[in-house]
Structure formats: C-alpha cells, structure tokens
Design brief:
The protein has a five-stranded parallel sheet, with helices on one face. Strands 2-1-3-4 form a four-stranded parallel sheet, sandwiched between helices. 36% of the residues lie in helices and 15% in strands. By secondary structure, it is of the alpha/beta class. The chain has two domains: 138 residues, Aspartate/ornithine carbamoyltransferase (Rossmann fold, 3-Layer(aba) Sandwich); 154 residues, Aspartate/ornithine carbamoyltransferase (Rossmann fold). The protein is globular and about 55 Å long. It binds phosphoric acid mono(formamide)ester (CP). Phosphoric acid mono(formamide)ester binds next to helix 2.
Length: 308
C-alpha cells in the first residue's frame, strides 16, 4: 500500500519527494498502457465526483479523462444548475455529494482553504483542484512532472517564474513542490507590486535558493525553465503602470531568439497574450504537452489515492 491511499491532497507539501518520484514513474507507465489499450481496468467500480465552484478547462477535464482512462466513473457537479441557486450552502452541498458514497472528490473553489474547510467532515478523499489565490497542488504535480520528463531530474534545475506572482495560485504550489528537490534555484520575475508574497517566501526559505528580479532578459540565459503566467491587468491600481510594464512581460519568439540559450517554456494556461503564438512552434515550447501531462500524472495520483 502506498502512503497516498485515502489521503486528502490540499497542498503541494502533502507530497514527499519519494511520492513525487513514484508518481512520475507511475504516470509514465500509465501513459504507455493508455496509449496501447485506451481504457484500463484499475478503476472499475470506482466513482469520482468533480465539484468545481469556479470555471476550469484543464483541471476538470484532465481529472475526468484520467478517471475514465483508469476504467472508473465520473459524476460532475455543475454549480450553475445546482441547488446552490436556491440558497443551499456549499458545505451542505459537499455533505450531500459525499453522502452518495464517491471514492474521491476533486474540488475547485475561488475561496482560499475551501477544500481544507470541508475535508474533516467529508469522508471521501479530497483532491484540491485549486483554492483561490492559495494553492493548486495538482498543477504543480504536472508542472514538476513535465520538468522531470524534460531533464530526467528536478535536482539542480534553475527555474524562472514570471508574471503575477502575488495572486497566481500555481506559484505557491510550484515553489513548495520544488523544495522537495535539491539545489533548485528560482528566479521570481515580476514588477514589484506583483512579486511573490512574503508568506510563500517564508515557507521556501532555506529550502530553495531564490532571487526576485524585474526583467526576464537579465536572467534568461541562466534558466533551464521559464514558467510564464498571466500579468493580471485588474491587479494594477494605475492602468498606465500596467501599459508601461506589459511589454516587459510578453515572451515572443523575437525576444527568445535575441539570446544564446532558449529555456524550456512552460505555462499553466490559459494563455492570454503573455506568450505570442509564434513561440508555439519552437521545440522549447512545452505548454501544450504540459497540459496533456496533467492527465497522466492525475491518473497516477487517482490510482494511488484510490489504492487500485
Ligand atoms: N491550469 C489550470 O488550472 O487550468 P484550468 O483553470 O483550465 O483548469
């Protein structure tokens, strides 16, 4: 039995290094099996509920595909047509969903710590699909899995993370997961008002080497990976400041080709304008593959949590 059987996953810190390396190898194995056989038998008789209280394309669909490929069944809770519209609380909704006896529930919510707040009264294991600005632990799982596949290791990597580091939930989870590896350096690349939050830095202090900078071109040649996120216009008090900075946070083919080394380019997606589409054809552009990797590594996570 693996240590993840029946476990709630609400933070990237819920994974130990050994869990991550085991899940990555399992994901590669499942990838081969799914490519060969389409749908597998491991999940027969198991039921997963996806309870998303906030929009999603990748997280929800890749979890659903992962469960279907494992041979299990998916029940989708759809907020817009649910009795939430009649005033039922989200907590009662979770009690009701859990009462039907699912084997696992994947939750996304715009409120930080919502999955934490229900996990003690929900019997099924809870997997967080993102909670507000707090964390997105399974996004980090596919991010680090993608790095591991690219380089054959995570130890020793130098990763630049760029964009809205203050409010983006993928950044904390990625930072926390990278602490499970040795000699990782992270460059946080953002305008001062969108730099990474102090509470996140406190949790990674002494466990990764990090630097905070404003201009990606100052470090691009040192990076193994450039992880781009959206710069969020709505976060700027001064719209002129946003317009002034915007160009600095666009990764274009022209910018990349000005430098001697192009790092692996990743993005949790959705992309808006921060990576121009002429980057998509570069061999270093891995963001669509990264999204696809999510299905395999989430299948690995489901297999372990369900103990199948
Ligand atoms: N990366 C990510 O979480 O995408 P979705 O919001 O589409 O799930």
């Amino acid at each position: 039995m693996t240590p993840l059987v029946g476990k709630d996953i609400v933070s990237a810190f819920d994974f130990e290094r050994a869990d991550l390396l085991r899940l990555f190898k399992l994901a590669d194995g499942l990838r081969g099996e799914i490519e060969a056989r389409g749908t597998l038998d491991y999940g027969r008789g198991k039921v997963m509920i996806t309870a998303f209280f906030e929009p999603s394309t990748r997280t929800k669909i890749s979890f659903q595909f992962a469960m279907v490929r494992l041979g299990g069944v998916v029940v989708d809770f759809i907020e817009e047509v649910s009795s939430l519209k009649k005033g039922e609380t989200e907590e009662d909704t979770m009690r009701i969903l859990d009462g039907y006896g699912p084997d696992v529930i994947v939750i996304r919510h715009s409120r930080p710590f919502f999955p934490h707040s229900v996990k003690d009264f929900v019997k099924a294991p809870i997997l967080s699909g993102g909670d507000g600005t707090n964390e997105h632990p399974t996004q980090a799982l596919l991010d680090v899995y993608t790095m591991w596949r690219e380089f054959g290791r995570v130890d020793g990597l130098t990763v630049g993370v760029m964009g809205d580091l203050k409010y983006g939930r993928t950044i904390p989870s990625l930072s926390y997961m990278l602490t499970r590896f040795n000699d990782v350096t992270v460059y946080y690349i953002a305008p001062k008002q969108l730099q990474v939050r102090e509470e996140i830095l406190k949790k990674v202090e002494g466990r990764i080497e990090y630097h905070m900078i404003e201009n990606v071109e100052d470090v691009i040649e040192k990076l193994d990976v450039l992880y781009v996120t959206r710069l969020q216009k709505e976060r700027f008090e001064d719209p002129q400041e946003y317009e002034r900075l915007k160009g600095t946070y666009v990764i274009s083919r022209g910018l990349l080709e000005r430098h001697g080394k192009i790092p692996v380019i990743m993005h949790p997606l959705p992309r808006v304008w921060e990576i121009t589409t002429d980057v998509d054809d570069l061999p270093q552009a891995k963001y669509f593959e990264q999204a696809r990797n999510g299905m395999y590594v989430r299948a690995a996570l489901l297999k372990e949590v369900l103990g199948i």
